[in-house]
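Budget justification, computational time. The allocation requested in the original proposal was used primarily to generate structure tokens for proteins on the priority list. As evidence of use, we reproduce two of the resulting records. The first is shown immediately below.
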Amino acid sequence: MGFFDNHGQNYRRIQNEASFNKEDLHGIQAAVKEGTLPQTRAQEEIQRNLKLGLEAADSIGDRTISTFSRGELPHYAGINTFLKMPYLEDVNKVDEYDVAVMGVPFDIGTTYRSGTRFGPQAIRRISALYQTYNYEMGVDLREQLKICDLGDVFTIANIEKSFDQITKAVSHVMGKGTMPIILGGDHSIGFPCVRGVAENVEGNIGIIHLDRHIDIQEKDMDERMHTTPWFHATNIKNAPPVNLVQIGIGGWQVPRAGVTVGRERGTTIMTINDVETLGIEKVAEMALEVAWKGAKAVYLSFDIDSIDCGFVPGTGWPEPGGFLPREALKLMHLVAKEGLAAMEVVEVAPAYDISDTTALLATRAVLDVLATMVDNGKIGGK
């Protein structure tokens, strides 16, 4: 009897002794959950596309296709908003939506390689690669969430005036009861974004910050730069430093001036070594405990350079040794389960990117966070 005959006999014996239940597989459960999702808004979008973009030529068999591209398909066509969601020209109507995406094309706060002013464009462009449905979570953002794209904040060649513009934009959206998703831009925007959130929260705000850099010194080259957002954010009365948790910090790009401030203010700092030792689940648990202690809302700041630079070359301060993409996505998933007031993704610099991989991860982070909040009943319903 040959090897394959023996192998077949052994396999059949194992099957008879200990077969598994297919229904226990996450993949099967996810497929079942998909069957419970509505398709109402998808059908509404098709009718809108046909009305605004003309019905297709007579030779086209699929009559859901329009002459001019006005929806998700084809992914390579159309004028890109984030995830091809509706562009809301009148920002006064933002209260009609659950989530509003805004770009902040600002990189005057960079201290080395500029170019993050083009980050919002890059993220929007590659977001067209995605559909609105996530298989593992069984969530369809088109059907379960009302999302709009507000376009970009008008930033100018002045740090402080741009900060004021950013704060006003974020505060406007928050004041309308809509969740802001902010596409940066360099990390200096963290301060004006938190300031805009803080104006609309009656109580303290926690901040969960994923980064390789501590970003909490007072000034850099005599200005408030992308190395300083959390010094100024934690000076805001209802954004105290005890509710700031920073995860992934380390390497050879952490200025001692920032370390001194973090130590003096009592912030919670976790290195990648902490993440490896404790595990993603424990780190998320600790981060939530710190950020939510006595707080009414939590702000998530995802600096793309928190990821090992082998995966995200398109950033101004690349650093080896950071998160693997799957680790960071898992961490943000666990954090988002408890709900977030707002989220920023910063430091995508497409001029240094390869095959849009950095912008792609930025897009994925936003979508995963939103889907997690939907799946856990933290957002949706407008």
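The second record produced under the same allocation is shown here.
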Amino acid sequence: MSLRLSTVILPVHRWHEGGRERWQGAEELGFHAAYTYDHLSWRTFRDGPWFGALPTLTAAATATERLRLGTLVTSPNFRHPVTLAKELISLDDISGGRIILGIGAGGNGFDATTLGQEAWTPRDRADRFGEFLPLLDRLLTEDAVSHTGTHYSADEARNIPGCVQHPRLPFAVAATGPRGLKLAARHGQAWVTTGDPKLYEEGTPEQSVEALRGQVEKLGKACADTGRDVAELDKILLTGFTPDRGRPLESVDAFVDFAGRHQELGFTEIVVHWPIPDSDFAADQAVFEKIATEAPGQLA
């Protein structure tokens, strides 16, 4: 399978001041998909502009025709499966069936406490995700759903007519732990990772490749345990969080080398950040565009 190249566009630009042009540019450059982060604020961007993911994707859906669109990633931190399902069905309809839902358990960043709650422990996040994802699956595939759970409930929630994509829009499940990988195996059409965060500061690219190899093997075991062929899942690497950092975007050759090493591990999609000057995602725009247009042909 040819390696797909996608981009993630952070929601930091006003729509009429560069936002629209970036999403349209992603389609013109031939990216497979364009994603955005689903946060209320994020890291060093907290005190600057930051717009909502689903309204941004709705606008992007009306400004593009072929580009697949999605979140990397949505989480239970500030969402409920009933309301999220209604928004996703609407978005899938507006886009003509081009939506991918990247989804994970969430983390302990600003989203974890911005609604005034105490930050959940890793176990709490795993427990909530274990209930959130199966319920969301049902809400997107059944006309009416009732559920009484520990963390989430639904009382005859109606979701007619359902998604344009059947049986529902695809889930790209972000996970590295055993419980999350099991959810990916059961409910995912794709799996997402950013690598091993422990290696980001002092690890080497070689160590990162080995860590990712281990994650892929654990995904394979989770699939085998649930009676599923791991080849059925796309495997997505969101770049920028491995020890390589921004080096793969320094040239076409550097990117092809980086992507090729990860393609050998079984990854089917590589996601790169649209350049943002004066940030961790700074890169030469001309080189970025050259990678988008030239690298996929070398990785076929």
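A brief technical remark on that second record: Residues 251 and 287 are 6 Å apart (CA to CA).
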